Amino acid sequence: MAKTTRRQPAKANRSDFDLLAEIAGNLWWSWNPRATALLASVYPPAYAASDQNPVTALRKLPARRRRQLAADADFSREVRAVHAELRKYLRSQPWYAQKHGKSARGVTAYFCMEYAVHESLPLYAGGLGVLAGDHLKSASDLGLPFVAIGIYWKKGYTRQRIDKHGRQTDRFPTLAPRDTPLVELKGKSGRPLRLTVVMGKDKVKARAWRMDVGRVPLYLLDTDIPENKARDRRLTHVLYSGDRDTRIRQEILLGIGGWQLLRALGTKVACCHLNEGHAAFLSLERIAERMTQKRESLGAATRYVTNTSVFTTHTPVPAGNEEFDPALVDRYFAAWPKRVGLTREEFHDLARVKAGNAEENFGMTPLALRTSKYANGVAALHGKIAREMWKPLWPGRPVTKVPIGHVTNGVHTLTWMHPRMVELLDEFLGDDWADAQDQAATWAHCKYIPDDVLWDLHQQFKEELIAFCRKRVRAQITRSKLTGMKPADADRILDPDALTIGFARRFAPYKRATLCFRDAARLAKILNDRHRPVQIIFAGKAHPADAGGKAIIEELMRQARAPRFRRRIVFLEDYEMDVARHMVAGVDVWLNNPERPREASGTSGMKPALHGGLNLSILDGWWPEGCNGRNGWAIGKGRDHDGTKAADDRDAADLYRLLEKEVVPAYYSRDRHGLPGAWLARMKNALMTIPPVFNTHRQVKEYLAKYYAPAMRNA
Ligand SMILES: *Cc1c(COP(=O)(O)O)cnc(C)c1O
Q1: Domain end position, chosen among 37, 62, 91
Q2: 368 Cα to the center of ligand 1, angstroms
Q3: Which of 29, 235, 256, 684 is the most exposed place for a label (fewest CB within 10 A)?
């Protein structure tokens, strides 16, 4: 008797850790606040030191802590409750099944170079990855028949550090499989799956991993295996790295290797979504395959592939549209025209804007557009710009008839919303609000949140953000010995009662991170007003090879250290999802000042709105659709940037004017309870008007209705 009672808890506890490993093994935990809190509590020191990585925390769990948890009945109950929630999530009948029943035709396969699912898996560089990660999460929540293909970038993307001179340095730490929830895929024989991807004269081997994002499997290709030559092993080390030859091989791996993987897994694919042009070689592979296997003509095979392909273009910036030297393409695709019965010229015409133009490079965007019946930009304005930009592909057609539509981007609400904001909305919008997040009626109830409740919560988020900044900046200064700053300076930065502006994004030059310094004296006056102070928190990485972007960071660091700015301007190094989450919860205003119309969508401004943050932005990307005059401000009256310095001056002047005349006075106008009544009305307006539209549930449903469903019917 005594023996069994002693033994039983031990047995139960052993399986508690199995359950924990199962929870950590599905990225669902990252958008379930209760699961996140549970995993964070297992072994906080290792969790915090590893980009909030629950797999690492479990791996490093010391025996003592393990015994302590094993004896903790509350902990055990919580593990079981969260595990039951995960199981329920995976088994429930989601929206898609209720609405469309079982999908008989097959899945949508989504191809993307980068995915930002959680900061512990740094397989992304910026907005494209964030969008892809958020898309998968909503596809999972809604239950779409969906799989995703990407690459396991073992050294990720740059982990930015700022050196003592205020310059960006780049590190690429290795993300070992044991610190990920990735599971290596096995072939039919039960041995690890190996693909052979032909790259010109070489045969490159690849393995594949599976990462569960809720219900959606994300398959990640990886060439870093002993069978490969050193050069091919490095192919999947660093995202967006390497010379042109490396890049084309990476894209062959994604498009062609990705398709081979789906074949090896026996996945029935009804629709392919090419998220950016990087994966466009996929279409070539599918066409040739149909001709060989189904004995279809080139015309029939091309029609089939085109009718089942969706392509999303993500940038109007020419350099963002991938292209290759034709000779480089010939090195890898000399056999392809012969396989399908085309001449070399006819083949290259597929990827040219103008047929027969030998001056043109091989463009991945034209190739994707030519082989996808369904194509879109990522905001209404971007759709229009993309139609103008790619109009020459359809000579003779008026621009309005160019077959490129738009689906405006959104964000995955539960990924970006502070857990205590989720709790507040549970109280005022009802427990199921997240399922109905794409309806305005759901958010309309925000008007019942008492002003003082919303303001108190907002102040808490701001204080958390400031504490986070001080800790990070102290560590930054201590490590880098940044000239002109001492570690103790970190405790004097930022003021919880000051109007706080956030600016964070990739430091691509067109985003103009330093625009607000154009008249530095005027900015200093605004920031240092004794009664109405303003402060700005910056973050963002430059691409490691982008000297222009790096120069902007250096300039920003120089300004930020000047005595007039050092308490009011902060640069947080290594912008990633955790930094973003802190910023979007705690700032009052989100600033965005790109050169219009170069920002295709931009999604970061949608995240503060989830907490009532207000946008102060150029009317570019999504903002012309989002701005209603009460949920934020428009800089620059919708003028396009003409590439001149005068245009920068005009936009900067408008920014200063808005700050001086509108934003600062509105923030500091307080009622007799000390509350900013008019500002709170704006916060609630932002909450009621932006999240119901700019969320990925709406976005994914729109892709389904406009593109996936018709493409699947064509399959
Ligand atoms: C939201 C987000 C982005 C995208 O920002 P944009 O404004 O769309 O450029 C990039 N990086 C991180 C870490 C983000 O959270």
Answers
A1: 91
A2: 25
A3: 684
pLDDT at 561: 93
Residues pairing with 186 in the sheet: 192
The pTM is what? Answer: 0.97
Residues 6+ apart with CB under 8 A from 419: 33, 36, 37
Q: Residues 253, 321: one domain?
A: yes
Q: Are residues 433 and 385 in the same domain?
A: no
CA–centroid distance, residue 519 to ligand 1 (Å): 27
**126 C-alpha to ligand 1 centroid (Å):** 5
Model confidence pLDDT, tens digit, residues 183-232: 999 988 899 999 999 999 999 999 999 999 999 999 999 999 999 999 99
Which protein residue has the closest C-alpha to ligand 1 atom 5? 604
Which atom of ligand 1 is the closest one to the Cα of 540?
11
Enclosing domain of residue 479: 413-694
Q: Are the beta carbons of 342 and 406 closer than 8 angstroms?
A: no
545 contacts: CB under 8 Å, gap ≥ 6: none
Asked if residue 664 is part of any domain, the answer here is yes
In the Cβ-directed half-sphere of 43, how many Cα atoms lie within 13 Å?
23
Looking from the CA of residue 603, the nearest atom of ligand 1 is: 8
Check whether residue 244 and residue 331 sit in a common domain: yes
State the pLDDT confidence band at 9, using cuts at 50, 70 and 90. Answer: very low
User: What is the per-residue pLDDT across 476-511, written as a single tens digit (0 to 9) for each?
Assistant: 999 999 888 899 999 999 999 999 999 999 999 999
Q: Which has the closest alpha carbon to 608: 585, 576, 592?
A: 585
Helix (H) or strand (E) holding 512: none
Band (1; pLDDT cuts 50, 70, 90) = very low
Q: Give the position, in ligand 1's atom list, of the atom nearest the Cα of 602.
A: 8
Domain annotation covers residue 221: no
Domain match, 389 and 448 both: no
Mean per-residue pLDDT over the chain, rounded: 96
Q: Is residue 226 part of a domain?
A: no
Q: Decide if 222 is inside a domain.
A: no
Count the domains in the chain: 3
| The total number of residues written for the chain in this structure | 715
Within 6 A (CB) of ligand 1 lie 126-127, 130, 505-506, 575-577, 580, 602-604
Q: Going by CA atoms, what residue is nearest to atom 6 of ligand 1?
A: 602
Q: What CATH number is associated with residue 620?
A: 3.40.50.2000
**Separation of 116 CA from ligand 1 center, angstroms?**
10
* Residue 118 CA to ligand 1 centre (angstroms): 13
Report CA(123)–ligand 1 centroid distance (Å): 14
Burial class (CB within 10 angstroms; exposed 0-12, middle 13-18, buried 19+) of 400: exposed
For 341, list phi and psi in degrees, rounded to 5. Answer: 80, 35
344 and 473, same domain (yes or no):
no
Same domain, 417 and 368: no
- Which ligand 1 atom sits closest to the C-alpha of 584? 15
CA distance 712 to 269: 9
Q: 629 and 642: one domain?
A: yes
Q: Distance, CA 473 to ligand 1 centroid (Å)?
A: 21
Is the bond preceding residue 122 a cis peptide, omega within 30 degrees? no
CA nearest ligand 1 atom 3, residue: 127
Q: What's the token pair of residue 95?
A: 């929206």
Give, for ligand 1, the residue of 131, 574, 593, 604 to mutate: max count of ligand atoms closer than 8 Å to Cβ.
Answer: 604
Same-domain pairing of 322 and 421: no
Positive or negative: CA dihedral 313, 314, 315, 320: negative
